[in-house]
Amino acid sequence: MAKKWDSDTTSSGKLLLLFTILLFNNRAFSLNELSSSSCLNASKATVLRLLRQLEQAKIGILVREKKGRESIYRLERNAETNFSLNPEAIGQLALCRDFMLHLLPDNLRAETAATIASLHCKTNSASQVPAGSLTKGRIDYGPFRHIFATLEQAIKKKLICRAMYKAPQNSEPREHWIAPKRLLAYHETIYVECWLLENENSSQRKYDDSLLLALQRFKSCTLTEISSSALPDIHDDPNRFFGIVKDEPFRAKIRFASDVSEYISERIWSEGQKLEREVDGFLLLTLMINNATEGLAWVLGFGDKAIVLEPEWFAKIVRKNLRNALANYNR
């Protein structure tokens, strides 16, 4: 009577086991090894059939090689299979989620939490480090989850969107044709960085520089079937100056009082910044600022703890704003 192979494992179960063996062992296996009781516990004919099924599924690249007279098999990982279930990496991913969770719509929070919890279970990793984020003026992105999903699809599929967007300086929303390229988070706000187009023609950019649009200011966003692949991707500016809106960068020198000097010195505000401590405990910070609007709001946030020394035109703007604020309180 022929030898009876393991009948308790289904064909799909053996296929999954074969995939697991090849995926998580970075080496080649012979047909004898794969058919042995320590691996699939199946006939060589069954193993060959499973190898053909795995090859047809195109989950990774099945490579056949010769070792003497024997054939050996290994799996090369493609983009879909190149992942790691390292417990430490999953813990770090969970920390990133907890730090940024407040920016996500409710449905994405739940999906993210469920995915990471599933990965924790698969690796039997220890419980994650408790973490969270403290926010000032959090935006409720729940009502914008459909717009968020549309922008995600536009970026992934390289498609143009028709957007109705209300900028702060406009009383009514305006129609724009945009080519979304990436999502950014800054000061508790989600932005989409995109190319603003003259019309739905993807080859005509309105400006040379990309545009940042705040997610909460979208009134609607419709995905078109027009490709944006002809437009260049957007990369980080190698000159990382203070502020996210690129206007006319300028160098500023600001003196900070001793009681905020530690806070200032702990952080990198601009690429190539310079810190100088004075005898009286004051701290001089020289940095590059991308635009006067963001620089002004930042300096004013320190109240009487910050004094702009250079340039004079920027110091003049700060003094004017302080006088106007004082006038408001004197009324």
Write the layout of secondary structure elements.
Layout: H1 11-24, E1 29-30, H2 31-35, H3 44-57, E2 61-67, E3 70-76, H4 87-100, H5 106-123, H6 145-157, E4 159-165, E5 174-186, E6 189-197, E7 211-214, E8 218-227, E9 250-256, H7 258-265, E10 274-277, E11 283-289, H8 292-300, E12 306-310, H9 312-330
Antiparallel strand pairs: 1-3, 2-3, 4-5, 4-8, 5-6, 6-7, 9-11, 9-12, 10-11
Write up this protein.
The chain is α+β, with helices and mostly antiparallel strands and 331 residues long. Helix content is 34%, strand content 25%. The chain is built from 9 helices and 12 strands. The strands form 3 sheets. The protein has a 5-stranded antiparallel β-sheet with strand order 7-6-5-4-8. It has a 4-stranded antiparallel β-sheet with strand order 10-11-9-12. Strands 1-3-2 form a 3-stranded antiparallel β-sheet. A hairpin with an 8-residue loop joins β4 and β5. The N and C termini lie far apart (104 Å).
Give the overall pLDDT as a whole number: 82
Structural class: alpha+beta
Helical fraction: 25-40%
Envelope shape? elongated
Order of helices and strands: HEHHEEHHHEEEEEEHEEHEH
Can you list the strand order of the major beta sheet? Answer: 7-6-5-4-8
Key structural traits:
9 helices, alpha+beta, 331 residues, 34% helix, 25% strand, disordered N terminus, four-stranded antiparallel beta sheet, 12 strands, five-stranded antiparallel beta sheet
Summarize this structure briefly.
This protein is an alpha+beta fold and 331 residues long. It has 9 helices and 12 strands.
